[in-house]
Amino acid sequence: MVGLADLNGDEITELLDRAVEFRRLADERALPSPLAGATVGNLFFENSTRTRNSFRLAAKRLGAETVEFTEVGSSVAKGETVADTVRTIEALGVDLMVIRHGSPGVPHRLREFVTSGLLNAGDGTHEHPTQALIDLLSLRDAFSQEGTGESLAGKTVTVVGDILHSRVARSNIHGLRALGARVLVCGPSTLLPRQLPGAEFFTDLDAALAQSDAVNLLRVQFERQRGAFFPSPAEYYRLFGMTQTRLTRSGRDPWVLAPGPINRGIELSSEVADGPRSLILKQVANGVFIRMACLATLMEARR
Amino acid sequence: MVGLADLNGDEITELLDRAVEFRRLADERALPSPLAGATVGNLFFENSTRTRNSFRLAAKRLGAETVEFTEVGSSVAKGETVADTVRTIEALGVDLMVIRHGSPGVPHRLREFVTSGLLNAGDGTHEHPTQALIDLLSLRDAFSQEGTGESLAGKTVTVVGDILHSRVARSNIHGLRALGARVLVCGPSTLLPRQLPGAEFFTDLDAALAQSDAVNLLRVQFERQRGAFFPSPAEYYRLFGMTQTRLTRSGRDPWVLAPGPINRGIELSSEVADGPRSLILKQVANGVFIRMACLATLMEARR
Amino acid sequence: MVGLADLNGDEITELLDRAVEFRRLADERALPSPLAGATVGNLFFENSTRTRNSFRLAAKRLGAETVEFTEVGSSVAKGETVADTVRTIEALGVDLMVIRHGSPGVPHRLREFVTSGLLNAGDGTHEHPTQALIDLLSLRDAFSQEGTGESLAGKTVTVVGDILHSRVARSNIHGLRALGARVLVCGPSTLLPRQLPGAEFFTDLDAALAQSDAVNLLRVQFERQRGAFFPSPAEYYRLFGMTQTRLTRSGRDPWVLAPGPINRGIELSSEVADGPRSLILKQVANGVFIRMACLATLMEARR
């Protein structure tokens, strides 16, 4: 699975249901081994300890062996193309490959070169499909627990922050729309794209919050940002940081998602991060099960 | 287990006995899998290939899956607190966590944030409980082999070197005292603390050796030392280095421990390191079994 | 196994046959676990993601646990000798050790210090025995598929490139000769040794090709080369790069091996690398099975 844009609502729901089933089996310490005898390549051309560990653990718990590959920086500099690196790892006997790469479209393009099942773990500013599935499942859990039913249809979710550069935003918007939710995006006007089909634009967070059942707070990526898109972290926090005051003022008590790692005092206050509406740690826990569902589904498609 | 100071003599003896039992079963290639289905997080905020491998191997051999995390330098610099990192890893589905951190007290403090079982793999200059257990077991094996019984009661052990900054020294002294041994500490006066309950101070190694059944040679950590605590490595070796001449001169033939990695020609001569009284490689072998005992005990406490 | 020079033709053939057997069982998803309960140390004092992964995967698929160790640069700088590092890792309970080191003869010398089975994964410019076995098996497969029988006896193989510094060349020449092949070496005269028993020297690639059933294209190691052994990559490509024109001109359609990672446009053109005579990805796939054969054979020798 290279992008969430390839999947319709039914296919997304099937993956979420499957993740819930793996979660139930894990709780009962009765996980099956649908990947026994299979090898999963974990190829990170851009590093991420937490996402890598989540995929690795999902693969191992379902019985697979893993091959880890990290290439920070360009492999072209060492004289090997990305396609050659990936084909070489496939030749080791890999059945499924998880790929993260800094350039948009790389996993898509690699489909011409390999026959293994491909799972996109984030490609530049393009897509991050498993993160979106995690967010959808965490929202479904939360709404269901609230007694309003697990359906996302008719709910309003606001994605906050650097919409322009975020693959999480892009995949989320597609997934939320496919499940019938209304999507608002809100951030500094310098970090909003010119257009984004399916999303309504806000630059005033309080106005967006007044209509939201949930908010998804994108990470401010100081390590990536080159330009000066906003004056300072303090300025960002004042305008777009989620505080308890702001949540209460909205009169709607929305659920709070954040793909992390979070910056306390920038995207949100500690009170919100550790508060009763925060789904942050539940997102991490769901991550392993979403990845199990994707790996198992991809493996079946190959057999 | 966060520190050896939490355990009394009986509890320490129980862990040593359990390690011996795992060692016997490993020799018979009949190790059980008390950690089957469990996940152990191996969190090293300060790197150590050998300690990390020892814990990982202990966990895997008892049937666990592991999650590896290395963060050299401050994670606060990347905007995430240590508590958030640890809670995120726990949320992946981790049951037990092994934690090494450069600051004293971190594992202790993390108990407020996580519900997983915590095992301290070294916290700054504070404690390194599994290393102390390894040293105790290696001494018990040696005394037992000598025919004087495995008890440490009444034996005299000298810890040599940088007592001031050593977590190994601190954990060792507690463990040795709890099992009834007399403890001497010996090193340059600049590297001795002002006071250390339970230990007798020496600056003359020969005087300490004349009363010792065993010596534990702390590693000179050139990579950490900032000040000038002793004039030169040669000077250190002349005053505190263990040589065969010095061992013979003591008239007691003491057992030699060293937590390693050793510096030949600084803490000890090659003749001593490779000699019949050296327990260095036995300490490494016991390390895996001590860690098995700690992990299995911690897992039972959680169930 | 420290070098291919230790093995005669029958012993080499036995390893190749065993690899083929593991390959057949893997295809049937019926691999046995001859290394169950064993621990394999993967010690790379010089880094190589692909070779390390190949050994690790071979060990894991046969049921072993692995201990990974990477020490780039000199461990002596940290005060520990290579022998101490290796003995410490062995003491963790390791049964077999895979060792790559930048200095020729290190695995050979380590035999004095450890009792584990040792497998050389490349020692400086000396030997790289498993790569040679991979090349032999890939050639045997290719000749067999061609219908000329799998025997290498009477075949002519040309090794092209930096013969002077290549451990792959050295191991290949021994293996090819042991199985009855004729060996030509071809490269810039600055990169040919003064003498090389068993090989015939060429500096004109077309002359060598006119007599060859296969060519083995050594990697140009820009990262290692200190002197100026040839004017420029373009010059190298013009004289020694394998192109389709050159292959066709030879009138022999030789098989093409390359131990990789390949530099497209330097050792060979993309057309050749991806062409029907290229064995490059088959070499990678055979790598895992050759390593399985070596590990299993070494383990039996120990029991």
From TrEMBL, chains A, B, C:
Carbamoyl phosphate binds at R50, T51, R100, H128, Q131, G260, P261. Pathway: Pyrimidine metabolism; UMP biosynthesis via de novo pathway; (S)-dihydroorotate from bicarbonate: step 2/3. Keywords: Pyrimidine biosynthesis, Transferase. Its EC number is 2.1.3.2. PROSITE patterns: CARBAMOYLTRANSFERASE. The keyword Transferase applies. Residues 3-140 form the Aspartate/ornithine carbamoyltransferase carbamoyl-P binding domain. It is an enzyme of class 2 (transferase). GO terms for molecular function: aspartate carbamoyltransferase activity. InterPro entries: Asp/Orn_carbamoyltranf_P-bd (IPR006132), Asp/Orn_carbamoylTrfase (IPR006130), Asp/Orn_carbamoylTrfase_sf (IPR036901), Asp_carbamoyltransf (IPR002082), Asp_carbamoyltransf_Asp/Orn-bd (IPR006131). It catalyses: carbamoyl phosphate + L-aspartate = N-carbamoyl-L-aspartate + phosphate + H(+). The keyword Hydrolase does not apply. It comes from the Bacteria. Residues 154-297 form the Aspartate/ornithine carbamoyltransferase Asp/Orn-binding domain. Belongs to the aspartate/ornithine carbamoyltransferase superfamily. ATCase family. Heterododecamer (2C3:3R2) of six catalytic PyrB chains organized as two trimers (C3), and six regulatory PyrI chains organized as three dimers (R2). Catalyzes the condensation of carbamoyl phosphate and aspartate to form carbamoyl aspartate and inorganic phosphate, the committed step in the de novo pyrimidine nucleotide biosynthesis pathway. PANTHER family: ASPARTATE CARBAMOYLTRANSFERASE, ORNITHINE CARBAMOYLTRANSFERASE, MITOCHONDRIAL. This is Aspartate carbamoyltransferase. The lineage of its organism: Bacteria, Pseudomonadati, Planctomycetota, Planctomycetia, Planctomycetales. The gene is pyrB.
